[in-house]
Amino acid sequence: MAASTSVRNYMIVTLAYWGFTITDGALRMLVLLYFNQIGYTPLEIAFLFLFYEIFGIVTNFLGGWIGSRLGLNVTLYAGIGLQVVALVLLTPLTQAWPLWFAIPYVMAAQALSGVAKDLTKMSSKSAIRLVVPQEAESRLFKWVAVLTGSKNALKGVGFFVGSVLLTVVGFAAALWIMAIALMFILLSGLLLPRGMGQIKKKIKFRQLFSKSRAINILSAARFFLFGARDVWFVVGLPVFLQSELGWSFYQVGGFLALWVIGYGAVQSSAPILLRYLNRGRSPQASTIQFWTFALTLVPGVIAFGLLSRWDPNAVIIGGLLLFGLIFAINSAVHSYLVLAYTDDEKVALNVGFYYMANSGGRLAGTVLSGWVYQVWGLVGCLWMSMVFVLCAGLISLKLEDPKGQPPPLSFAAGDGE
């Protein structure tokens, strides 16, 4: 009975997260395509997402504290509700709005979407810790990998959904369709147990800063890891593909959507690969150290290929595939370790703090991507990415293995133990 209840709760959380993720990816593509269509520059479009990242940092910092006091089911569905508000706020937007008003307005709506995204992500990933027994580490890694990987695959699906909705029904109607769909998902919150992840004793605000050494180190590494991705992926890469290689915007959007889907598929299947490489053991500190230093080489190789005037299409496509493969494994192991380093009572606090670092890295990468590309081009963005990954690797050297020796991983169908 307990096992079936855990599976049911896991499915409810996962389906809610999936629904949100599709709309999040679709909204990003809608904004990119629509504002490109009405004449905004790539850097102006990048600024539209600035508050999305900034408020994500604030949300991750406070979200764990709020979740520990009110329960993860409250924060999960509050995030979905805020996404509905953000979508509705964008519906009256038209090309006739003056630039000085439209940009701050969209930034404010995107700020709500950023809060929604990180409330939902923190809550869903924290909830997995609560529906898997502490001793079932192999099942925990598998379920975390499935949730994380499927999220990225569905975000890619969201890119396609956003493109199709914009083409078929237009900007405002697309937003209304997604808002109505999320309203139905909100109803599933009634099926979750109340107070999930809620701590009985009061957590003082200053305790938000009191993390374990392992969580602090892992969070710092996460900052540089995701900054390394976004410093060339957010602005530099799409602009390069469109302006330098002559790709159409739909080719750029479609390619990036397929990349995100493939990235998510690799992340979901990371346990299968690591089963053989780790001889059945759960990921340890050495696992993340190896894969982070392996990733360091990839942006350098791509930059070298572009400087050597190799076929840029082949260099970019091949380099992105390799970068996505290794980065996905890194991200999956990170998502496992943050839960392996914590316990049930502190899970919301620690995961929220950890993903605050994630959002901080994305913010730094987004801002640097536009600036570095404007000054030094895509090659400069790639060298900056290499430096960021190297910093993440050096920081990860300070990590120790999670306490205790978890049982060997099993990746057969079933409960995974």
Low-pLDDT runs of 5+ residues are 405-417
| Helix percent band | over 70%
Q: What is the count of helical runs?
A: 14
* Sheet with the most strands, sense and barrel status: none
Q: Note the overall shape.
A: globular
The count of strands amounts to 0
Please compute the radius of gyration using only Cα atoms: 21 Å
| Average pLDDT for all residues | 78
What distance separates the N and C termini? 18 Å
Elements, N to C (H/E)? HHHHHHHHHHHHHH
The fraction of residues in strands falls at under 5%
Please name the defining characteristics of this protein.
about 80% helix; disordered C terminus; globular
Protein architecture, described:
Helices cover 78% and strands 0% of the residues. It has 417 residues and is mostly helical. The longest helix has 50 residues, at 347-396.
Please render the helix and strand layout as text:
Elements (H helix, E strand, L loop, with lengths): L1 H36 L4 H7 L1 H21 L1 H19 L8 H33 L5 H32 L2 H16 L26 H21 L2 H9 L4 H20 L1 H8 L7 H23 L4 H29 L6 H50 L21
Briefly, what is this?
With 417 residues, the protein is mainly α. It has 14 helices and no strands. Helices cover 78% and strands 0% of the residues.
